[in-house]
Amino acid sequence: MIPSPDMCLSLMEEIGMPEHIRRHSVMVERAADLIAEGWIQSGADLSEDLVRAGALLHDIAKAPCFATGEDHAAKGRDMCLEMGFHEIAEIVGEHVRLRGFQPDGDVLEKEVVFYADKRVNHDAIVSLEKRLADLIERYGRGDDERIERIRKNFDVSRDVERKLFSRLDFRPEDLAGLIDGN
């Protein structure tokens, strides 16, 4: 089952998702939806419903994992499976680390959500570079190995950006203005 946007928002409320994570998730959904719409208009076989639900619920496990130290993407995937949201479980599970990315393959819903999440810092659209700096500051903890893993993951983000914007009629730097204009 693919939860509707209203179901996703109700679920956020029901589980007590903190407001700042909700705002972040809604902005990720807006960015992901804009990108997905562009690809769908160009003939891609993408599910806008999967993109929306995956984006809205990508951080469903973030708050509980603050306390436990668990991987919130893996925990979110498991939560989606438990709730019967099998169609979006992979999207949620790979929103931090994208697996099996194929630069020349079809555009996938999980790539759109992965990328949109990398462009949203708190609840604002920012460049990949600004988001990278924020993640290093918040999660790098001065640990060179951890910082290098974050940087390598952002190399994938740049590759995904090139792929996603190869057929869109707007550029990565236009994303914030397009969303603010809606």
Protein described:
It is a single chain. With 182 residues, the protein is mainly α. It has a single domain (5-180), classed as Hypothetical protein af1432, CATH 1.10.3210. 66% of the residues lie in helices and 2% in strands. It is built from 10 helices and 2 strands. A two-stranded antiparallel sheet has the order 1-2.
List the helices and strands and how they pair.
Layout: H1 5-15, H2 19-41, H3 48-57, H4 62-68, H5 72-82, H6 86-93, H7 109-119, E1 120-121, E2 124-125, H8 128-139, H9 144-164, H10 175-180
Antiparallel strand pairs: 1-2
Helix pairs in contact: 1-3, 2-3, 2-7, 3-6, 3-7, 4-5, 5-6, 7-9, 8-9
Question: What attributes does this structure have?
Answer:
single chain; two-stranded antiparallel ribbon; 182 residues; Hypothetical protein af1432
Compact summary:
The chain has 182 residues and is an all-alpha fold. It is 66% helix and 2% strand. The chain has helices at residues 5-15, 19-41, 48-57, 62-68, 72-82, 86-93, 109-119, 128-139, 144-164, 175-180, and strands spanning 120-121, 124-125.
Main sheet: strand order: 1-2
The number of helical runs is: 10
For the largest beta-sheet, the strand count, sense and barrel status come to: 2 strands, antiparallel
CATH class categorisation: Mainly Alpha
Q: What best-fitting shape do the alpha-carbon axes yield?
A: globular
Number of strands: 2
State the order of secondary-structure elements, H for helix, E for strand: HHHHHHHEEHHH
Structural class: mainly alpha
Q: Give the number of domains.
A: 1
CATH topology: Hypothetical protein af1432
CATH architecture: Orthogonal Bundle
Helical coverage, percent range: 55-70%
